[in-house]
Structures are given as C-alpha cells and as structure tokens.
Amino acid sequence: MSLALELNSAIQDVANRLFAARAGRLAIPAVRNALPEKDIAAAYAVQLVNVRRTLAQGAQIVGRKIGLTSQAVQKQLGVDQPDFGVLFDFMDFGGMGAEISASQLIAPRIEAEFAFKLGADISERPASAAEVGRAVEAVAVAAEIVDSAIAGWDINIVDTVADNASCGGFVAGPWIPFTPELDLPSRTMRMIRDGAEISTGRGAATLGDPLNALAWLARTAIDFGEPLKAGEIVLAGALGPMVPLAPGDYVVEIDGFKPLWLRAKP
Question: Where are the alpha helices (DSSP H) in 98-172?
C-alpha cells in the first residue's frame, strides 16, 4: 500500500471515530497517534470529511470559529498559529437567555469572545485588520461552548483540528453595527456564574485584536478554497480562560456592550 493510501485510510478511520463519538456523545482516546505527528493538513482533511457528512445529513453552515488565538494556549500546544472550525445551524443555541443542556454535549466548557457578522464576501486576501473590518456588518458579545470528543481534553493541535476545532455551539447577544471606533482590543471582559467571577480578559488577548483573527481566517479560508461569505458568523476567539460549563446562570460583560446572559442545565 502506498503512503498516500495509508494516509487516506488513516484519515477515514479517524473521521469515523470522531463522527461516532459526537453522535453518541461518548469521549474517545486522543487521535493524534493515528495521523502523522503534527500533520495539521491531515487533521483538516479529517475535519472536512465530517463536515461533508454533516452537510449530507441536512445541516447548514452558518459560519466559522477561530481557536488558539491566545499566545499562552499556542505555546501550551506547541503551535504558532490559530485554527478554525465550522459552525452549523444546530450549534446556534439562541440569543439572550438561551438555555444549554450539558447532557447534550460531551465535556463542555465555556469561553467569552466577540462574534462578527459579515456584510460582504471576502474573496481577496486581506492585508490588515482595517481591511477585513470593512467586510464586517455587525458585532456581538458571544459565548462559545467548546466541547471535545477527546477524553479528558487530552488534546494537541491535531486532535482539536480534526475534531472541528473542539466546537460544541455558541450563543450570541444583540448585534450592533460595527465601526472601527469600537476599539475592540481595549475592551475588558468578565464572565460571571451565579454571581461569582470565573473568567476575565481583554480584546487584545485575541491575536492583539479580534480583527487580526478575522483577517487570519479570511486568508486561510481562501487558501482552503472556501472563502468567507456575506451573512456568515465568525467567532473570533477567546478573550479569557475557558471554564467548565457547570450548571448555573452565566453573564458575559464587555464594557460598552449589553451583557449577555444564558443558563446551563445538567
């Protein structure tokens, strides 16, 4: 068997295991040893297999998510770049006041970030945050529910990319028109559960500026032959540490924006 066929077989096998884990909501051992070490291209190939399967079941793509936008997390996983995954319609848990059942996920965690809604296609590689910002129609406070099919969150870059960037779902607050004057890097974030602060951060934690993360994704999406389209939602990356999604009432506060609140149930 050729190396190409062996790799293709490995990609299909890993995709099958991850798809079954998600369908059954049962964690599986890390998959990184089944693919070439740190072969991010192979991991994205796994992700694509399962994206196509999910679309074939009738789901619709509503946007993308960006992960690994924190330098600390990149260092922890031994990478020097973010990653991305696909947002499907069933991942949208609703807006303000959404209720999320942890039992419908595997090992959910929650993180706060900005969400962008695109008002124009991005068909050419943006050179800067300012350039990509011209394609943004609106911005919202958002909570991403990150969820790993890998037991114990024992992941590296290959595991998380193959597992659709560990995306479980999202909640977006009210959308407001985007303008550069919002100065997203300067904004501070607090996440509160049942009155206790559980995560803090700043807009600058996302590659220095959430628009930098969006510009990276726009370029990468073009490289993958799937450019960002008008109407898509993009989760720009965590502003602070993610925490386990324990039952309770959550509030995400970002100065200058209306707070987002949601409820997690067992």
Answer: 129-133, 157-162
Count CA within 13 A, CB hemisphere, residue 83: 27
> Which DSSP state fits 214?
H
Dist. CA 184–CA 34, nearest whole Å: 40
Give 197-247 pLDDT, tens digit per residue: 999 999 999 999 999 999 999 999 999 999 999 999 999 999 999 999 999
> Cβ-count burial of 104 within 10 angstroms (0-12 exposed, 13-18 middle, 19+ buried)?
middle
- 3-265 folds as Fumarylacetoacetate hydrolase; domain 2 (3.90.850)
3-state secondary structure (DSSP) of residue 57? coil
Encoded tokens for 3: 């190396």
Global pTM? 0.95
Contact 150, 30 (CB under 8 A): yes
Domain ranges within the chain, ordered by starting residue: 3-265
**CB-based contacts of 226: which residues, under 8 Å, 6+ apart?**
none
**Pair 86, 66: CB distance under 8 Å:** no
Residue 164 · residue 59 · CB < 8 Å: no
Other Cβ atoms closer than 10 A to 1: 7
pLDDT band for position 3 (cuts 50, 70, 90): low
Sheet of strand 196-202, all strands in order from the earlier edge strand to the far edge: 98-101, 260-265, 248-254, 188-193, 196-202
Burial of 246 (0-12, 13-18, 19+ CB in 10 A): middle
